[in-house]
Amino acid sequence: MTAGICTILLLLVSNVFMTFAWYGNLKLQQMNISTSWPLILIILCSWGLAFFEYCAMIPANRIGSQINGGPFSLMQLKIIQEAISLIVFTGIVALVFKGEPIKWNHIVAFALIVLAVFFAFLNNDKTDTQKDKTEIEVPNDIPDNNDK
Q: How far is CA 118 from CA 76, 88, 103, 115, 140, in A?
């Protein structure tokens, strides 16, 4: 499995845990399970889920980062994570929080996020074969006229 695919799969797992850590308490409240729980207990349960989020997120970032030989820059990793976060969130809302509408403006927002991912991967760095034609290379072996 390539580092890029492994990174994306770990980010998916991480975001599932993150979404339940952040929003699962609302579902428990909706189901009348946690209505009498003190807030500190709800926070501790969320932290427990967040532990598993980090168990996937940290390896994803380490495997995927160019710093460690992975395929993604830090900016690309963050934009991928945000896009995955919204995809996972939307899926969980559709499956778990039935009745929460997805409106046209949400779809437009998701399309713009997909465009953000596209632009994050758009490479506009100049390579040696694509140098600006106005650059002039001066060879190092030209004699200096002041050396007479």
A: 10, 19, 23, 5, 41
Mutual orientation of helices 3-30 and 39-64 as an angle, nearest 10°? Answer: 170
- The rounded distance, in Å, linking the Cα atoms of 72 and 66 is 5
Least confident among 44-58, 71-85, 94-108, 115-129 = 115-129
Structural domain includes residue 60: yes
DSSP 27: H
- Could you list the residue range(s) of the whole structural domain that residue 32 is in? 3-123
Whether 108 maps to a domain, the answer reads yes
Answer whether 0.90 is exceeded by the pTM: no
What 3-state class would DSSP assign to 37? coil
Query: Does residue 130 fall inside a structural domain?
Result: no
- Please report how the helices 104-121 and 74-96 are oriented relative to each other, as an axis angle in degrees rounded to 10: 160
Number of structural domains found in the chain: 1
